[in-house]
Write a structure and sequence with these properties.
By secondary structure, the chain is α/β, with parallel strands linked by helices. 21% of the residues lie in helices and 31% in strands. It has a single domain, classed as Purple Acid Phosphatase, chain A, domain 2. It contains six helices and 15 strands. Strands 6-7-8-12-11-14-15 form a seven-stranded mixed sheet, with no helix packed on it. A five-stranded mixed sheet has the order 1-2-3-4-5. Strands 10-9-13 form a three-stranded mixed sheet. A hairpin with a 2-residue loop joins strand 9 and strand 10. 38% of the residues are buried.
């Protein structure tokens, strides 16, 4: 699958008072470094090209921009290259648990802002690894748990990244095509404000509604 098609399916666009916002979650740039891969995927370069092609008024990255917890020389080079390509795009990062020291990179780019969460037009944007902020909102978007779901298709079991809706929360899958998702029943436990939830709704990236799934066995 061409990566642009993958990026298209695993992200989403919404209209806001600030114009068109492109949402994506969990790029995990530098995953090759943490996972000991000997190949160079150029993932972050293709992702930047995709953003430029979409030309949004605002790019919101729902946390875990990077994979390694620290900032090595190699990772800094990847991140600097990524954000250099996006100098003309307003970028907001809702800081994730992998984003330690991301400010050291973001401060070099006036168009990039790092926040704990963002509230825009009664919509809340956050990563999902901490408690909910004390704000009022109608709908929330998050990442963090890389949702995927195993379902039966033509007699065979198939696992796919999915969008997960839990009440007024929508969880986006990781946009990184090289990273597998995490089964919903395992992932939802990682979100503090989901721990009392019992039911979710699952959508394939193509928009197909798979139905309701119990979050607890």
């Amino acid at each position: 699958m061409d990566s642009f098609e993958s990026f298209e399916l695993l992200s989403m666009e919404i209209e806001t008072s600030k114009g068109t916002a492109l949402l994506m979650a969990d790029p995990h740039i530098g995953f090759e470094i943490s996972r000991g891969l000997r190949i160079r995927t150029h993932f972050e370069e293709r992702l930047a090209e995709f953003v430029l092609a979409k030309d949004p008024d605002l790019l919101i990255i729902l946390g875990d921009v990077k994979e390694p917890l620290g900032i090595s020389f190699s990772l800094k080079r990847l991140l600097m290259g990524f954000f250099s390509e996006l100098r003309q795009t307003r970028v907001v990062i809702t800081k994730g648990n992998h984003d330690g020291q991301i400010e050291k990179i973001a401060e070099k780019f006036p168009n990039v802002e790092v926040v704990d969460h963002m509230l825009l037009d009664d919509r809340l944007f956050l990563h999902g690894h901490t408690k909910l902020p004390d704000v009022e909102f109608k709908e929330a978007f998050l990442g963090h748990i890389h949702p995927s779901h195993t379902f039966e298709f033509k007699g065979a079991l198939k696992r796919s990244k999915v969008f997960l809706r839990v009440d007024n929360f929508l969880v986006l899958p990781t946009i990184n095509p090289f990273i597998e998702g995490l089964e919903i029943r395992e992932g939802f436990k990682m979100v503090p404000f989901f721990r009392e939830k019992t039911l979710g709704e699952v959508f394939l990236p193509h928009g197909v509604y798979l139905g309701k799934v119990p979050l607890r066995v």
